[in-house]
Amino acid sequence: xxxxxxxxxxxxxxxxxxxxxxxxxxxxxxxxxxxxxxxxxxxxxxxxxxxxxxxxxxxxxxxxxxxxxxxxxxxxxxxxxxxxxxxxxxxxxxxxxxxxxxxxxxxxxxxxxxxxxxxxxxxxxxxxxxxxxxxxxxxxxxxxxxxxxxxxxxxxxxxxxxxxxxxxxxxxxxxxxxxxxxxxxxxxxxxxxxxxxxxxxxxxxxxxxxxxxxxxxxxxxxxxxxxxxxxxxxxxxxxxxxxxxxxxxxxxxxxxxxxxxxxxxxxxxxxxxxxxxxxxxxxxxxxxxxxxxxxxxxxxxxxxxxxxxxxxxxxxxxxxxxxxxxxxxxxxxxxxxxxxxxxxxxxxxxxxxxxxxxxxxxxxxxxxxxxxxxxxxxxxxxxxxxxxxxxxxxxxxxxxxxxxxxxxxxxx
Amino acid sequence: xxxxxxxxxxxxxxxxxxxxxxxxxxxxxxxxxxxxxxxxxxxxxxxxxxxxxxxxxxxxxxxxxxxxxxxxxxxxxxxxxxxxxxxxxxxxxxxxxxxxxxxxxxxxxxxxxxxxxxxxxxxxxxxxxxxxxxxxxxxxxxxxxxxxxxxxxxxxxxxxxxxxxxxxxxxxxxxxxxxxxxxxxxxxxxxxxxxxxxxxxxxxxxxxxxxxxxxxxxxxxxxxxxxxxxxxxxxxxxxxxxxxxx
Lengths: 412, 246
Fold this sequence. Notes:
The complex is a heterodimer of chains A (412) and B (246). By secondary structure, chain A is of the alpha+beta class. Chain A has helices at 3-16, 18-56, 86-92, 134-138, 150-155, 164-171, 213-220, 242-256, 272-315, 317-325, 330-366, 375-402, 405-410, and strands spanning 60-65, 68-69, 75-76, 101-116, 122-130, 142-145, 159-162, 180-183, 186-194, 208-212, 231-236, 267-271. In chain A, a hairpin with a 5-residue loop joins strand 4 (101-116) and strand 5 (122-130). In chain A, helix 2 (18-56) crosses helix 11, helix 2 packs antiparallel against helix 12 and helix 9 packs parallel to helix 12 (375-402). Helices cover 34% and strands 25% of the residues of chain B. Chain B has helices spanning 55-62, 85-95, 111-122, 126-139, 155-167, 185-200, 212-216, 232-236; strands spanning 13-24, 27-39, 44-48, 70-75, 78-79, 96-99, 173-177, 204-208, 220-225, 228-230. A 6-stranded mixed beta sheet of chain B has the order 6-7-8-3-9-10, with helices on both faces. A 4-stranded antiparallel beta sheet of chain B has the order 2-1-4-5, with helices on one face. Mean pLDDT of chain B is 86; it is low at 1-7 and 236-246. At the A-B interface, helix 1, helix 10, helix 11 and helix 13 of A face helix 2 and helix 3 of B.
């Protein structure tokens, strides 16, 4: 019997039991869809992180306020005290103490409700106080108007640069340059609009309002800790000098904070690498969990194939007997049932990949989750599906092959 | 597997003291208790006997569907005990054509596909097997029903499709197990005439039946009783207790 005849015999058997065949395929389909989407979501998440890193720049350090130890020896938790100040940022600009640092940008942020001074439209956004060097540190500038300048900074000028999404919320499609917004009764003139960040995950970065940090501290937020900052962006002169910049920043801040042991530092420095690593760890955990679910569904699908094939063998004992009587050898019968099982696997696999692709198109419509389809993974999934058909078809097929023709013919 | 070219026309099948014991748990049932039988080329043999006599078992052994527990069984000169399942399958395919009481056609296939099936297992290419299947259906006057499924055919037509399937490989022997058992008298006569025409064409025909009028048409009849060949002459001389052909 040729392979082609074997294949068509199997197709006939699959077609003549449509409902049963489709239910069997459904099991495989779900498993393969899970595999395709798992890989797609995993790769999408990694691509998201990669994009974020690239947009921030790879040679960026982020200094955050950290744990502090009070004079009485009480050690506060991370972030309990705002220990970073504008003075720290100023110190880091020194070419002598930190020669590998290209730009330093202290940042203070708070959630703030801005009001369009003309129309009264309000919008809550992230109010960010920083210095002109923010442009260099974040590799991002104004596309309309201008960014805040050193003069603005010196004079604590009431000016604001808005993110593109913020502009849309407050001004619609009108040109905002020269208009005013108010915050806590302080009128701020809009002088520029920030460049939009491309990737969808950066939506938050497109909704913000940037003011000079002097304005932020003296006119807008104030408070007891008016000189403290939320974080300091430190940009190394190049990716190659990043670790040198890290050392210099660390040494300088330990010194200015009068901390003698590195372990009791009241700040922490994160590199893009460490952020990337942390993010990847989370993603990998998620991927492993999803992959586990996918493997379990594939296993269940495979058992479904075996179950149906066993039913099929029992139901078709007479057919097997007739086939044997007219000359089918045990190996031919075994092959017929194996091919039938793998046809079910193949069909389930193809449909599973199709549903996976559909899912990859639909998921981003309903969530921020990005899904990147992998062609090798899809081909691999189909191969796995056929493999499952074969592996779980072996036992039913050999049961069919072992049936003595006479027992098979006798059965009613 | 070619037929032996022995000049002294070999037996198609030969049984010497064949015994068959079925075991089910502790219970042993002897279906055949020493049957010796020789069927020659172009014979027309009827095997008769009451139900439970062992004639079905004998038919299964003749058809290489089952192997004897003891004794010698040769088919076309081959000792069947020494052959494995794959070779037995090839022998069934090439040398034996089966016709069953229950027709045993595959329900989801057309008449043509059913008739083709032995050639599929013989590895014949599709064009040739289609042509041969149409010719075989033509021989049983069912060429116009080629695309019908068994469910769409009458009992007599189904059995004629089964005859076409049995003759398509041009087997040395046709084994018919109660071929008329499920047919009305008209259809039964048609089927028997078809089978007899094949015998007239040179094929060995073995018919297993419990109907005396069917058996009467054969050129030789043997009767199986209680697992043995019942020979009326032996019986006449009171040889029943020692068994036939001992």
